[in-house]
Design brief:
This is Polyisoprenoid-binding protein. The chain has one helix and eleven strands; from the N terminus they run E-E-E-E-E-E-H-E-E-E-E-E. The chain has 177 residues and is mainly β.
Length: 177
C-alpha cells in the first residue's frame, strides 16, 4: 500500500480570481483574499489526487467597496449565513501533460459537480528546502446554478450582470514531510 503524500496550499504564492461580464460590454475581475486547501496523492504524479479547498466569502475584493458589500449581502453570497465556498474533488485525472479536476462545489447551500481544467506548472524546490507544486485551474460556472440569481436591468434594457463566471485559480502547494 502506497503512503499518501500530503500537500498544503501556500497562500503567499496563490490567488483566486473570477471574471464576470458587466453590462455585457466589459469584464469585471474580482478575487478572494482568504482561502485554504490541500491535496494528497499516492502516486509520483498527481493522477488520482484528492483535493479540498475552501475560501472565505467575506474576503471578496473587486476593488470597489460598495460592490463588495452588495456581493456579501443576502442578494448574492449571503456571507453572514454562508461564510465559506468549498470544493471537494471526486476525480483528478491525467489529460495529456495536464489534468481534469472534477468535484463538488458548494456555494451558499447549493452543491453541484463541476469540471475544471488544470495546467500543471511543475514541481520545484524553494530556497528553504521545501518542495512546491504549481497549478493553474480554470473553468466556467453559471452563478444562477448556485442560487446567485440577482439580476438588474438598466433603463435601456441592458442586463447588468452576466450569468457565466470565469474562474482563474493559481495555486502553489508545499509538500509536507
Amino acid at each position: 500500500m502506497a503512503t499518501a503524500t500530503k500537500w498544503v496550499l501556500d497562500p503567499m504564492h496563490s490567488e483566486v480570481q473570477f471574471k464576470v461580464k458587466h453590462l455585457v460590454i466589459s469584464t469585471v475581475t474580482g478575487s478572494f483574499k482568504t482561502f485554504e486547501g490541500e491535496l494528497s496523492t499516492e502516486s509520483e504524479d498527481f493522477d488520482g489526487a484528492d483535493v479540498s479547498f475552501s475560501l472565505d466569502v467575506a474576503s471578496i475584493d473587486t476593488n470597489q467597496e460598495m460592490r463588495d458589500g452588495h456581493l456579501k449581502s443576502g442578494e448574492f453570497f449571503d456571507a453572514e449565513t454562508y461564510p465559506k465556498i468549498s470544493f471537494k474533488s471526486t476525480a483528478f485525472t491525467k489529460d495529456g501533460d495536464d489534468y481534469k479536476l472534477t468535484g463538488d462545489l458548494t456555494i451558499k447551500d447549493v452543491t453541484k459537480s463541476v469540471t475544471l481544467d488544470v495546467e500543471h506548472g511543475g514541481v520545484a524546490g524553494d530556497f528553504y528546502g521545501n518542495t512546491k507544486a504549481g497549478f493553474e485551474v480554470t473553468g466556467k460556472i453559471n452563478r444562477k446554478d448556485f442560487g446567485l440569481v440577482w439580476d438588474g436591468v438598466t433603463e435601456a434594457g441592458s442586463v447588468v450582470l452576466g450569468s457565466d463566471i470565469k474562474l482563474i485559480i493559481n495555486v502553489q502547494f508545499a509538500k509536507q514531510a
